[in-house]
Structures are given as C-alpha cells and as structure tokens.
Amino acid sequence: MSDVKPIKIAVSGKGGVGKTTIAAALLLLMARRGRRVLAVDADPDANLATALGLDAETQAAIIPIAKQAALIEERTGAKPNQFGQLFKLNPEVADIADTFATRHCGVDLLVLGAVPKGGGGCACAENVLIRALVNDLVLYKNEALVMDMEAGIEHLGRATASGVDLMLLVVEPGQRSVDSARRILRLCQDIHLKNIKLVANKVNGQPDRDFLTQALPDVEFLAFVPYTEELRGIDRTGRSVLDGAGPELAAVFEALLAKVEAS
After folding, report:
1. Which of 115, 147, 239, 242 has the most CB atoms around it within 10 Å of its CB?
2. Residue 33 backbone phi and psi in degrees, to 5
3. What is the spatial distance between Cα 160 and Cα 248, in angstroms, rounded to a whole number?
4. Nearest-CA neighbor of 240 among 98, 69, 79, 58?
5. 228 pLDDT band (50/70/90 cuts)?
6. DSSP per position, 139-158
C-alpha cells in the first residue's frame, strides 16, 4: 500500500457525540489494509485506547506526553507544571512518536494528555512540547494520521492546519451538538482549514437526518451512522469498535473511509 498517499485527519465535535468511535473505526480499517497508521489522542478525556481495544493493563502503562516530566525537561530545558521559566520554543520532537507510541492491531497510539492552564492561558513547557509534536506529526511524518481532538481545535494552529487534509466534524441530532459544530466551523475558518466534512452519529431515522442537514446545510455529510445497541455493547465489553460491529455497521464505516479517502 506504499502507493497510497498518507492522509492526515483531525476528528472533532462536542464531547459525547462519538468522535472517538469514528476515529477508532477509521484507524483500524486503515491498519487492516496494511497501512502504517498513527493515532493521536489529543482529547484531555482520553478514550481512544479503549475504542481501539487495548486491554486495561496496557492502557495503565501508557503515560501521556504531558505527564512525561523527564522528557519535557530534556527537550525544553524546563520542568513541567512550573510557570515563569525560560525554555526552548522549538524542542526536538521528531523521535517521540517512534519512542513513546503504543502499538496495537497495526495502529501506533500516542496519548498527548491534558496540559494545565495557568492564568489566561498556558505558555508552559508542556504546551510548547505538545504543539511542536503535533506540528511535526501533521507536517512531516510520512504515515496516515488520525487525531482525536478535544471539543474544538485546540492543538491546531495556522501553520499546522496547512498539513491537515481533512477535518471530520462529528455531530449528533441535537441542538447543543449543532451549536458546537457551528462554533468549530468558525474556528476552522480562522485558521484557514477549508476541507471540512460532517459525520452524523446516533442517527435514528429520517427525522434525525432531516434535522441535521437542515441545521448544517453548507457542509457535506459523508456518513450517517445509525444509533445502535451494538456500539453501546462494544463499550461495555472492552472490544474494539470494529471487533464488536456487525456487518451493517461495519459497512457504514467502510463506506465512510472510502469517502474520506476521496475527499
């Protein structure tokens, strides 16, 4: 599959809409096709490892980059969780994914972790390291990348956005989800991120489809993922999103990947 251009995808949406489910499905499908795939969990409420099917023991051994005190000090010259220090603004990050990612089912998972904010924002060493790392992963790594974002685009700046091939915005049929999607769309415009598509999740029939397409008429929907008990059951058992999906749901994810690659 070396002839396939590595695609860089950011997945965002309001908390709880299922963006992690969508990100995991895309990652696992690409990996099953023999591609080199990097998963980045950029949501402070990190759940991507569970959706990928990592067991509890493996997950417990993962230390988020924001909590790697020795790494932060080595690369930036400053201790984490301390403000007012001098530190390198361009730390070396090129080797971090290879060194700290956890491999599972052909997917290399990197968990960024939450960065504490002080005052009106965070110019701390942890934040500088993570922003440099995201920039490197998006712009310079020659592999497919799927980033499970927090409810927004916190980790993407204007320079980094130039390397993102697609922003997938996951919505569910509810007004709060729609309002969040509109806010994220405005943020994407601010950083000139133009290729944005929607994925509707937890869709229960035509009224839900109509509500979403009427509320968000100016952005293309790539998929309407049905509300199913399958997905709820998958989460309870610890299986990956794909391992627990029946044929119909798996077909929806396959069709989504095909549209993502064509976008």
Report:
1. 147
2. -90, 10
3. 36
4. 58
5. confident
6. HT--SEEEEE--SS-TT--H
Residue pLDDT, tens place only, 132-170 = 999 999 999 889 999 999 888 888 888 889 899 999 999
What is the arithmetic mean of pLDDT over 105-125?
73
Q: Which helix (H) or strand (E) holds 11?
A: strand 8-12
Q: Which token pair is 246?
A: 């029946």
- At 157, the amino acid letter reads G
83: confidence class by pLDDT, cuts 50, 70, 90: low
Locate 166 and state its tokens.
């697609």
Cα–Cα dist 254/260, whole Å: 10
Predicted structure pTM score: 0.90
pLDDT of 2 higher than 70:
no
Q: Would you say 153 and 184 are in contact if contact means Cβ atoms under 8 Å apart? A: yes
Residue at 48: amino acid letter: L
Please report how many Cα atoms fall inside a 13 Å half-sphere around the Cα of residue 213, on the Cβ side: 12
Lay out the sheet containing 8-12: strands in order across: 102-104, 107-111, 37-41, 144-148, 8-12, 166-171, 196-203, 221-226
